[in-house]
Amino acid sequence: MLDETGARDIKELREIGIKHGYPARLRRQIWSILLGVDDGGDDRSPSDGAELHPDEKQVTLDTNRSFTNLAELTDLAVTSESLPDMKRSLELVIVGTLRTLQWSHYYQGLHDIAQVLLLVAGEKLAMRMLRRLAMTHLRDFMLAKLSPTTSLLLLVLDQIRVIDPGYYAHMRQLGVEPFYALASLLTWWSHSVDEHESICRIFDFLLAGPPTAILYTIAAATLLKKDEVTLADDADLAFLALSKPPKDIGEMLVLASELQKSIRPIQLAHWRRISDHSCFKTWGEHGTLDERAHEHARQQELEVKNDDLAEERRKRIRKALTLTSAQSMILGAIGFGCLAYGVAVLLRPASKS
Predict the structure, then answer these.
(1) What is the pLDDT of residues 109-119, one digit of tens each?
(2) What is the pLDDT of residues 66-78, one digit of tens each?
(3) Does residue 210 register a pLDDT over 70?
(4) Which residues contact 35 (CB under 8 A, 6 or more apart)?
């Protein structure tokens, strides 16, 4: 496999994926190498015998709405007759992943990533790939709450501030928040980019790199949208422009690669606020992946719970202080009224007998 790509080792294979992408005929094998999953072996599903997952009903709803780009599907030899089987396979890929990772939570958008893996690798290997990604690249998105994910979006704006402070200032002046990038982050662009080959080229880039690679692609896309955002009169128009992928995906990936080389995550202002248990920080750790992924997820869930409790306490304190202030004003007004009445009584002329 390495000989066919010209790569001498896994490092060079990753570099090829970042710079050029992989031939379509080799993607199945190369993606499995990059993710460290077996392309052959046991035909049994890793979820065989596993208990049901609470999110399976939502998975069914989303997979029934999948495979909507009919033109692309025709090019990929997916016919209307085979479409129901493809949807069933997609459901099995996701459900099989969730059942083996009971700590995980399904999120809308995971089916978009799973669909790409299924079209490239087939059901059995796609399930192994998705399971590995759930532990290494997508874990933050699969927690009970979205707050760890939205925190990551701030790293996109941090990159803009480093590269183009003037553009960043304009975005802040318009009131642009980074939520325009949420769908791209959660789906690895597979929801907004229509062409299958372009999506696969993005996946080549992302699978060849660390989890932070997706943030660099979003920052690159944001920089490429500068002219449109500069012309926008308000945040809504800017949001509309930024939420669409750039026309030239190749240009976005080249710029993303440059950003990745020039800006280290530790240089970004919000990096220190990202949990040490985030998959964006723990990627590349040694040890048993299943156990570590579960423990990191558990610790992140605990951090989110503690943050929520702390925020609830802050709200109660603010409410108590507001009430105390209001009560003081009322008591002060009553006290002043009593004092004024007393003074008035003292100053009242004595009545004549």
Answers:
(1) 999 999 999 99
(2) 988 756 676 777 8
(3) yes
(4) 128, 129, 132, 133, 136, 207
d(CA 213, CA 253): 10
* Alpha helices, H only, 164-212: 165-174, 182-187, 196-207
HSE, side-chain direction, 13 A CA sphere, residue 141: 23
- pLDDT band at residue 339, thresholds of 50, 70 and 90? very low
- CA–CA distance from 60 to each of 87, 92, 94, 111, 143 (Å)? 9, 9, 10, 10, 19
Between CA 208 and CA 16 the distance in angstroms is 8
318 pLDDT band, cuts 50/70/90, is confident
Residue type, 87: K
Return the ∠ at Cα 139 (arms to 93 and 286), rounded to 5°. Answer: 105
Q: State how far the alpha carbon of 155 is from the alpha carbons of 8, 137, 158, 164, 283, in Å.
A: 34, 16, 5, 14, 17
**What's the whole-number average pLDDT of the chain?**
87
180-215 b/e (C-beta count within 10 Å ≥ 16 → b): bbbbbbbbbbbbebeebebbbbbbbbbbbbbbbbbb
Which DSSP helix (H) or strand (E) runs through 318? helix 289-347
Structure tokens at 115: 């669909």
Q: What angle do CA 311, 293, 312 make, to 5 degrees?
A: 5
Q: Average pLDDT of 332-352? A: 52
Position 352 scores a pLDDT of 46
Q: Where are the alpha helices (DSSP H) in 175-273?
A: 182-187, 196-207, 213-224, 226-231, 235-242, 249-262
Distant-in-sequence, close-in-space partners of 191: CB < 8 Å, separation ≥ 6: 109, 112, 183, 184
Decide: 190 and 262 in contact? Cβ < 8 Å.
Answer: no
Which of 6, 5, 3, 47 is CA-nearest to residue 25? 5
pLDDT the model gives residue 41:
58
Three-class DSSP category at 34: helix
pLDDT higher than threshold 60 for residue 337: no
pLDDT of the residue at 340: 47
